[in-house]
Design a protein that fits this description.
2 helices, 179 residues, Ctag/Cox11 (Pfam 04442), 37% strand, four-stranded antiparallel beta sheet, five-stranded mixed beta sheet, 25% helix, flat, alpha+beta, 9 strands
Length: 179
């Protein structure tokens, strides 16, 4: 009969561990976002609209590469119109991405950007970007999606190439649930 208090304590400890693990799982995503914002790791760019730069460094040229991919069940063709371009830090540049809905149904996409190297994300500023909004396309419809950006002149000199990658997600079901 002396074992019952030990069993109760063990059960209480195990329940506390399970509740703690569950809470940690929910806290993990916001903690990761804060960590990425502070360190610049993972190439997350700010979701905010940047003001246009007024200072251009004409003595420096940086290569900006563009990559586009479609995630899983997204029935779209999605690619950059230009794969690579040379820019002067501080210089505003406009590029486009081509998107086409290959399915027989209306769909809505959302593009999530990532910059490599990760520290370069801190210096990549989007003035206008299709990634700020959801992109609905009717069945068979295509569109050019615009991006206006600049690299901050304070970009570290060792960074000579910056890669902007977009992953396009199908959010049609999420939009339908809200509507």
């Amino acid at each position: 009969m002396a074992k019952r208090p030990n069993n109760a304590r063990l059960i209480t400890t195990l329940v506390a561990v399970v509740v703690g693990m569950f809470g940690f799982g929910f806290a993990l995503v916001p903690l990761y976002d804060v960590f990425c914002e502070i360190t610049g790791i993972n190439g997350k760019t700010s979701g905010e609209v940047a003001a246009q730069s007024s200072q251009v460094d004409p003595d420096r040229v940086v290569t900006v590469e563009f990559i586009a991919r479609v995630q899983g069940d997204m029935p779209w063709e999605f690619k950059p119109v230009v794969n690579r371009l040379k820019v002067h830090p501080g210089e505003s540049r406009q590029v486009a991405f081509y998107a086409k809905n290959l399915s027989g149904a209306d769909t809505v996409g959302q593009a999530i950007p990532s910059v490599s190297p990760g520290t370069g994300a801190l210096y990549f500023s989007k003035v206008e970007c299709f990634c700020f909004n959801q992109q609905p396309l009717a069945a068979g419809e295509d569109a050019e999606l615009g991006l206006l950006f600049y690299l901050d002149p304070a970009l570290p000199p060792e960074i000579q190439t910056v890669t902007l990658s977009y992953t396009l997600y199908n959010i049609t079901d999420k939009v339908s649930e809200r509507g």
